Amino acid sequence: MVVVIISALLFDFTNGFHDTANAMATSIATGALRPKVAVAISAVLNLVGAFLSIEVAKTISSGLVNESLITPTVIFAGLVGAIVWNLLTWLLGLPSSSSHALFGGLIGATWVAAGASAVNFSTVVGKVLIPAFLAPLIAGVVAMSGTYLAYLLTRRADREVVSRGFKSGQVISASLVSLAHGTNDAQKTMGVITLTLITAGALPVGSAPPVWVILTAGLSIAMGTYLGGWRIIRTLGKRITEIETPQGFAAETTSAAVILVSSKLGFPLSTTQVCSGAIFGAGAGKRLAAVRWSLAGQMALAWLFTMPAAAIVGALAAQVAGTGVLGTALVALGGLVIAAGIYVLSRRRPVTAANVNQPVTSAQLAPSAA
Amino acid sequence: MHIEWAALGEIFLVAFGAAVGVIVLFSLGVAVLAPPALGARGLGGDVPLGGRRTIATLCFLTCVLVVGYGIYLIIAR
């Protein structure tokens, strides 16, 4: 059980640095915040957000899979699937959904270990898949309208002053996204740990997460956030479209609003997809802005693959881990080896706070787009 | 299969209202505060600077209130 909780916290950590980009990419791209300052603010607010609402944690710990049919080992296998997929997409700089990786891993592992009937497919479709499809569209439409209006209203004013005004606004709006991120993504790990405690019999079925779970989950996502996923920040901040401060402000306000409302209603939606949708929308809202729609296709593809891919890794892990203690150890070892390998690969072409805003050359684009 | 269309619709409407509302208010504030570009007539160009500042402050304050209320709703549940 301890191993499961540690791997859940590890997942949370990857979630943090995978998703720093969502909140801070546009602020870093427009220069509203210096990269290091941005991730620090984001980390603190993620922790705060983790305490604000636990609706999403409840959705995950009660309802996605049948608690009475699975064991902590299954959850462990699911987490390994999610972590591996998260690291892989981070290496490629793809803003894929950490949430879907988690769900995919869990569903795959449960399916193998307890049969398809242990997965509540109707909850999965109703609470995860449909919102996953709609949320980026909603965010895109809202951000597009907002951006359009922002440019319309300020079109006669002095460009310089307007740009500076929105730059200050971005500090607040980006902070809100981080807060929102805590209310949605930190919840997912809490949900998983709570689910583990329930399956291990330490908590009654349908319990809310205990305080120590909220605290550790919040802390580990904050730490991951502080390390910063510079690769994905570059994708969102530079590669989709060149972002001006009014667009950044519009995109961030939109993301924060969409995520906060969904958190409130217990929809575990993908903050990544919402933010990406908002950035595309903000790009499209300014007339004649150059949005790289081909990148949208690439990202959508990665999104489609996320759940099944993580599910397959999760299923494999569950198969092996299900053979006993040795199997579980083997899965843990395998996960560590893959993580280490990805880390080594990432050192070859590091993206850091120092070079995150440099123009992306086509030579750099090619391998990460593959 | 149970899809919560009502909840999804609520997300869209509330998010649209809140986000676009805040963006418009903030833009107005910025537009009123910023001097018009050379040769163009800006928003509230005939209003003296003091008045424009008051209007802008009101806009920004409303933004803060909207955001604060949103967070309050989430905490209060």
Q: What structural class should be given to the helix and strand makeup of chain A?
A: mainly alpha
**Biggest chain-to-chain interface with counts:** A-B, 52 and 40 residues
Quaternary organisation: heterodimer
The low-pLDDT segments of chain A are 361-370
Rg estimate of chain B, integer Å: 18 Å
Helix content of chain B: over 70%
Tell me the number of helical segments of chain A per DSSP (H or I, 4 or more residues long): 14
Please count the beta strands of chain A (DSSP E, at least 2 residues each). 0
- Helix content estimate of chain A: over 70%
Shape type of chain A? globular
Q: What's the total count of β strands of chain B? A: 0
Radius of gyration of chain A, CA atoms, in whole angstroms = 20 Å
Approximately how much beta-strand content do the residues of chain A carry? under 5%
Please explain how this structure is put together.
The complex is a heterodimer of chains A (370) and B (77). Chain A is mostly helical and 370 residues long. Helices cover 78% and strands 0% of the residues of chain A. Chain A contains 14 helices and no strands. Chain A has helices at 2-30, 35-52, 55-61, 72-91, 98-114, 121-153, 159-199, 211-227, 230-239, 245-265, 271-285, 293-321, 325-348, 362-369. In chain A, helix 1 (2-30) packs antiparallel against helix 10. The longest helix of chain A has 41 residues, at 159-199. The relative contact order of chain A is 0.21. Chain B has 77 residues and is an all-alpha fold. Chain B contains two helices and no strands. The two termini of chain B are 27 Å apart. In chain B, 32% of the residues are buried. The interface between A and B is large, with 52 and 40 residues.
